[in-house]
Write a structure and sequence with these properties.
Shape: globular
Structural class: mainly alpha
Largest sheet: none
Length: 360
């Protein structure tokens, strides 16, 4: 892909997210918070620290509000920051940038840009910090991880990267991670008391209260451990220098927790940018390895289908019990911009009722 088209897609992704009007289930919650948020020059440091949301989010939101009272201006700022990080990450690591953008758009674009706005900024800081970590520039890594935590508490998991990076990805390392995961499942309450603040403990406790049943355990194990293991095995076998080796065990540690406690799946959001790079690089391998000559199109199409199928099923999920003749995709489609300001009541109803059901 040429630099022109890469930059064109960046601009398009920013404008679609930035100029949207009440598109996305959680967007209205952010709009409501924005409308009641004081301007930055009206708050003291203690006022910022007392607020429910993380301080750097408050500072960015309030500072943007001083520039314009229109929420779409903040959306543009948010979209620029997040998509700059994602595009920089793809540009640095992807062998097949177009396919990386395709996976990003279908798999994660709406979720990151229109739902988890606070956490997505933390993820942006995290992946930029990781680039510096790989270069051995640990001061810059620490600064970006601190920024990530100040945007969203969940980014605290990034502090464990140096620990897991020291564990080799072999049988001993996998066994070590397995024991660590089981230990955390049994002693999570005591560990949280030692290492986390009261606010962080409360949020992570909410995640851990969501427990999987037998079917959920099997589904999660296949989705987050078995399938990624197979893909990763193929990728490593056909790579001279596999990317992100210092994250493999960390990912499977979090995935192990998710198998039994789906509430921890929130932490997987930090790994999805790395996944889209590996997935797109696998496609690149398929098209460039001689052993796939003659069947590369079939292999590539099958692999692409397997990657995108879970998300397509998610988008097509029936939500008629919440709103007549609706599917999950209606949270984002039809699209509405700030130019027309057309509202679709189905979005809020589907989002609200889904959240109610998940909290039961």
């Amino acid at each position: 892909m040429s630099k022109f088209w890469f930059r064109f897609y960046f601009l398009a992704f920013v404008l679609v997210a930035g100029l949207r009007y009440k598109v996305g289930g959680d967007t209205n919650n952010y709009i409501n918070h924005w409308e009641t948020l004081p301007l930055l020059n009206e708050m003291s440091l203690s006022d910022i620290l007392k607020m429910a949301w993380n301080p750097l989010w408050i500072v960015l939101s309030s500072a943007t509000k001083m520039v314009s009272q229109e929420f779409f201006v903040f959306q543009l700022v948010h979209a620029i920051i997040f998509n700059f990080a994602i595009f920089k990450f793809i540009d640095k690591y992807s062998e097949f940038r177009f396919f990386s953008l395709l996976i990003y758009f279908i798999g994660f674009y709406f979720y990151y840009n229109m739902e988890i706005l606070r956490e997505s900024l933390a993820i942006a800081m995290f992946i930029i910090g990781y680039i510096y970590y790989n270069k051995g520039r640990f001061l810059y890594f620490s600064i970006f991880i601190l920024l990530a935590i100040l945007f969203h508490t969940s980014a605290i998991i990034a502090l464990f990267i140096p620990i897991f990076s020291r564990i080799k990805f072999n049988a001993i390392g996998i066994t070590t991670v397995l024991f660590l995961g089981v230990g955390l499942l049994f002693f999570s309450d005591k560990i949280m008391v030692i290492f986390l603040t009261e606010n962080s403990m409360s949020k992570i406790s909410n995640y851990s209260n969501i427990i999987a049943n037998a079917n959920g355990i099997i589904t999660n194990a296949v989705m987050y451990i078995v399938v990624p293991s197979l893909f990763l095995k193929f990728y490593i076998k056909n790579s001279i220098r596999p990317l992100f080796e210092n994250l493999y065990l960390f990912y499977f540690f979090i995935a192990l927790l998710v198998v039994f406690i789906p509430g921890f799946s929130r932490f997987l959001n930090y790994f999805f940018p790395f996944m889209l790079i590996i997935f797109s690089n696998i496609i690149y391998q398929i098209y460039n390895l001689n052993k796939f000559r003659g069947v590369r199109n079939i292999f590539a199409m099958t692999f692409t289908f397997l990657i995108l199928l879970p998300k397509i099923i998610y988008y097509m999920g029936d939500t008629s019990k919440y709103y007549p003749n609706s599917i999950k995709l209606n949270l984002w489609y039809p699209y509405s911009s700030v130019l027309e300001k057309e509202e679709y009541p189905a979005r809020q109803i589907i989002f609200r009722e889904t959240m109610k059901e998940l909290s039961k």
